[in-house]
Design a protein that fits this description.
- Helix content is 39%, strand content 20%.
- The protein has eleven helices and twelve strands.
- The chain has a six-stranded antiparallel β-sheet, with helices on both faces.
- The chain is globular.
Amino acid sequence: MSPSRDDIPKRSSRAELHHDGTHWLLAPQASERVVKQPPGLVPALENAVAILQFLNDTPPHEAALVDLTAALDISKTHCHSILKTLVHFEWLKFDPRSKTYRLHSGLLSTASSLLNSPVLDAVRRSLSALVQRIDIPCLLTQPMDDDTFIVIDKFNGPKSMEISFPIGHRFPRDACAQMRAYLGWQTPERLDLWMEHWTPARYTSKTPLDAKSIRASVAATRERGYALSQGEFTEGIMAIALPIFDRDGQVSFIFNCSFMIDSFLPEQEKVAAEMIRAATEIHRATLARPPESFPAL
């Protein structure tokens, strides 16, 4: 027997809507870090990654040796050797006065090709122009191997609600609009595989909690031409999302525009049309191969 809605505990969407007196702000909730379990193949490398993730995710984003060994269960000698190596390559910076470590800009140099790829440049240009046209904020995420979505960039308009999710923020695999945009043009076999690992999670009173509803929402996405979430992931927020495909026809990014339901519901079709226009521009600029059933202007 399938559990009833009341039997499924409510899960945080990791998003909250605030008003500072002048404008609305959609921000992540304070929550525990989402930690991917290591595979157990190269312990020293896995511990180095754990240290970097801890410093990135944990305010005040600096820690002493004793803090890291306690939090990550790494021996003092082993942890100190890793820290010295990361400092040598300028991925970490050591403060001799406070005896603490923090991330350093050498990380950016190592990852510069990822952050400044021609494809991302084209995506950023089109999404920046999109936000200027519709004055609705946009979030760019990338699907991960575990089907979660990592924030790559964000674009805020001059007047609209602001989104403040940090780069690297991870959305769950069933974040409604992003999930539907990702699955909307996948093969039936890929959808079946995704469903095998799906566990119902109730983010709001409107979150779909059965497999039939999930499949129906994915089918509706393809038929409509864009993914839609109306208060199903965050109370009071509507989101429209579209995938961005690469040259092999695979989903490389998702872009998601969020706005308050009461304020922008009449603008839904206009916003969706402008987003399809942006996706078309990106695909042409990057020589991408979206599916034939994907909308284009």
